Amino acid sequence: MYLFFDTETTGIPANYRAPVSDSDNWPSLVQVAWLLADEEANEIGCAQYLLKPDGFTLPAEATEIHGITTATALQGHQHQDRQISS
User: Which CATH number is 2-12+26-83 given?
Assistant: First the structure.
C-alpha cells in the first residue's frame, strides 16, 4: 500500500531558518488531501479537506497557483471522500 499526501498553503516562508514559534513567518495550511493506493496503483480511497482561515487571507499569488480563494476557504471544512471497496 502507498499513502500520498498533498497540501496547499498561503505561500512559502520568508525565512527558512526562522524558529517554528515565529508563526507570521510560516505559511498557513489551506487544504490537505490524501490518496491510498495498492501495489498495482489501484486507488483504495481518498479525501480532501478545505480548512477555514483563522485570522488571515489568502494572498493572490497563492490563489493563482492552487485556485483556492479566501471566500472559498472561509466556507471551510468542506470535504470530499471517496472510499473504494476492495
Answer: 3.30.420.10
Cα(69)–Cα(86) distance, integer angstroms: 36
- DSSP states along 15-41: -TTS-TT-TTTSPPEEEEEEEEE-TT-
- Give CA 67 to chain center in angstroms: 12
Kindly report, residue by residue over 35-55, the tens digit of the pLDDT.
999 999 999 999 888 888 878
Residue range 60-80: mean pLDDT, rounded: 82
Q: What is the pTM of this model?
A: 0.75
